[in-house]
Amino acid sequence: MNEQQEQQAAWEHLEHLATQAERKAEEAFRSVERIAERNQWKVIDAFQRHKVSDFHFNGSTGYGYNDRGREVLDLVYADVLGAEAALVRPHFVSGTHTIGCALFGNLRPGDELLYITGRPYDTLHKVIGKPGDGTGSLQDFGIVYKEVPLLGGSRLDWEQIEQAITPATKMIGIQRSRGYDWRASFTVAEIGEMVLRVRAIQPDILIFVDNCYGEFTELIEPTQVGVDLMAGSLIKNPGGGLAETGGYIAGTAKTVEAAAYRLTAPGIGTEVGAMLGTLRLMYQGLFMSPHLVGQAVKGSILAAALFEELGFESKPRWDEPRTDLIQAVKFGQAEHLIAFVQGIQQAAAVDSHVVPEPWDMPGYENEVIMAAGTFIQGGSLELSADAPIREPYIAYMQGGLTYAHAKYGILKALNRLVHDKLIVIKPYIT
Ligand SMILES: *Cc1c(COP(=O)(O)O)cnc(C)c1O
Q1: What is the pTM for the complete model shown?
Q2: CATH topology of domain 3-40+287-419
Q3: Best residue among 93, 99, 233, 381 to mutate for probing ligand 1, ranked by most atoms within 8 Å of CB
Q4: Rounded to the nearest whole angstrom, what is the distance from the C-alpha of residue 120 to the centroid of ligand 1?
Q5: Which CATH architecture has domain 62-275?
Q6: Within a 10 A sphere around the Cβ of 23, how many other Cβ atoms?
Q7: Nearest CA owner, ligand 1 atom 2
Q8: Domain ranges of the chain
Q9: d(CA 8, CA 221)
Q10: Please, are residues 365 and 350 in contact by the beta-carbon 8 Å criterion?
Q11: Helix, coil or strand: residue 119
């Protein structure tokens, strides 16, 4: 065989492995599809209840007073998320900004924020900051921050949590998704149990959930199990690959209003904010989201099934229940990790010719490598992979607007690993 024939044979072999993995995962795929279906109907029902019409997509300029499209979008989101109120805006620049508004809006100097799911996502470390750091971080403003590490990296440490909750504890923080940590993500049912236990200790505590990457992976959301306040990014799940920027906050009317006062100004809150030309894509993206989340989750399941077959550890495992988009694969070596991320990039429709390299990204403590050949810059409902360059060299992959793209990415990444002789696949005997 010449080199080209060899490469062709290797690719066909990988495709064959993928077909086997798909057969194995058939039932898991069906259950993802059923969830997508229910969530799709839920979203349509909410659009219908609020009589969404063409004119809601028009948008506003200037102050944006009486922007009916903005008001109804908030109502539709609240309805879909089972919350009293929601605040959905293109004015949130990122997930971190959205979460920051939720926290700053609802915490005051002297209050204490206690994260019970361990260290939060990397970009929040600077939002929390340090006392006297001069950046206007939470702790710089005199808000006290505490966290209880997860036991064995994945279970809540209730003994420590019970000790840490005091009359000064104003808010409990919960991160649903694993973020850049090798831990389990927390299902909505598990979050519901946390709510009950925390309220048994102190009934009037505010409970906040960082819901990034979780939306529509399950049938219900954290606001439907007693959470007061949650936030997420529109360039992740609920933007449906179409929303060009923005974030959402949902929860009780009181906490959402407090967050709105922080986003705009006290006394102004939700009543201003020109939506410009963003509304149609935010509505249409929400409409698309349940389906696209299903496509992405199926991609994650395929990745887990394939990499497990090849001897790598994955989290979650292919047949474990899903509560977010993220698929973590442990590579153990930087070289493998980098080849994987570069392979994902090679499957992109946009920017497939660029080669991602590790770099110092603002807000992150280690160098990070990211594959992101996306239509929306940094959009991670689109197929993307990121990894901090630190031991034990774990890649976090997520997204895929279509299952076929996710599958292509996984195959290209595997092909890269084979081509670079980083993994050996048993020869395919016909
Ligand atoms: C993505 C993410 C964030 C931050 O969102 P950015 O848009 O990157 O600022 C926060 N928490 C979790 C769990 C995330 O996945």
Answers
A1: 0.96
A2: Aspartate Aminotransferase, domain 1 (3.90.1150)
A3: 233
A4: 10
A5: 3-Layer(aba) Sandwich (3.40)
A6: 9
A7: 212
A8: 3-40+287-419, 62-275
A9: 45
A10: no
A11: coil
